Amino acid sequence: MRPHVELIQEQDYIWHAAELVGGEGRASERRLSVDEEDGSSSLRVDFHTDWGRGPGIHHANTEYYVVEGEMDYGGRKIGKGGYVYAPKGVPADYVKFAEGTRILHYREYGDAGFDAVESPAAPGWKDAREEVIVMDTEAMTWDAVPNAGPMPGLYIKYLHVDPVTGFYTRLVHSEAGWTEHRLAHHPCYEEAYTLYGQMEGNFGTLDLGTYFFRPARVKHGHFTTMEGGVTWLLRSDGELINWYTQNEWVRWGGEALNYGPDGGFMRWSMSSHDLGRGTPGRSDQDVADFKKSIDFQREQGQPDVDFAQHNASDKSLIAIAKALDTARLQAGQGPGLAHDHDHDDHDHDHAQLELDWGPDPASLEHPDERTDDNSHNWGIGRAWQEGQQVPVPIISTLPVRSRSTGRWNGEGM
């Protein structure tokens, strides 16, 4: 499986010799994200010389996107924004990259294997499907996203959509001031590389060269696009359905045995609220942007709640207080709880409190969660249809992080 990688700045990755089987030339790669179980990889590749490879069959669904420079696919030369999708098992034509070219390179559901063939007319694998796609994305126009989320200002260029799995690759542009005031989780994974601009989010700053890979169901959000807008190449292994959470809280704690103020015992706890205490919190402009986002949702007839600035009432403490009150009211009357008197000398009924703690968490899991072929991998995408139970989010507080970016801003998960 691939780990949760959150806002790693490309410059913090080391260079490796590029794993481009059967090619002639010299290239290096930065391994943004790798699945060591099936070989899937997301790579940033630099070509130090002219590089080329003849016709052949890839062992994985393979994508090339030119960040800078020039690509020649089967005689068609494309500069910045050039894109090729070569399906697994389908013969592809030759590809060449000019010296100095920089690309994003993706392999999905397979490794770097490549079998040379005489021409793209050679027979493909028996179970191969789809065809090679070649496009110049710079010549494409931006389309407004049909469902723009919290507010207008989001645009898209579709590069590839798998008609069977729903896997898709697209360029996404967000205008300055576009804001998402909620957290979201999805039934599929989501990854992106920032090609232009800057956005602030709960995991830190997305600027040029930052990358993330979020497994399915990882909560993320609180986005605000900065001046000039922002553009990413974004991929998902299924339809990107949004399930929203707002005004979230996370509390954790423990008992420090040997690292208190004097090296001794200390009680402590922290939450997303505590992490924000003593700071001004969201700026006036952020709060104004959030309000616009909320107002837009309500105009569309969508459910929403007012934005609650952190450092206000702490719902985690309220929940703890309610649990303590419940324990006191039970007065030792629940199963396995101690009594301070004997039942032998009197006869009376203890009133049992009927408490609603919400649904059993197990009932919120996807019905295939622990039974299908991917039961070992909670983060992998699952097919989901309208009307099915919505899978609960994963609270991933320990993503792989970057040395120079991916700052935690204290606003929760």
From TrEMBL:
<dbReference type="InterPro" id="IPR011051">
    <property type="entry name" value="RmlC_Cupin_sf"/>
</dbReference>
<feature type="region of interest" description="Disordered">
    <location>
        <begin position="332"/>
        <end position="374"/>
    </location>
</feature>
<dbReference type="Pfam" id="PF14499">
    <property type="entry name" value="DUF4437"/>
</dbReference>
<feature type="compositionally biased region" description="Basic and acidic residues">
    <location>
        <begin position="363"/>
        <end position="374"/>
    </location>
</feature>
<feature type="compositionally biased region" description="Basic and acidic residues">
    <location>
        <begin position="338"/>
        <end position="353"/>
    </location>
</feature>
<dbReference type="InterPro" id="IPR028013">
    <property type="entry name" value="DUF4437"/>
</dbReference>
<dbReference type="InterPro" id="IPR014710">
    <property type="entry name" value="RmlC-like_jellyroll"/>
</dbReference>
<protein>
    <submittedName>
        <fullName>DUF4437 domain-containing protein</fullName>
    </submittedName>
</protein>
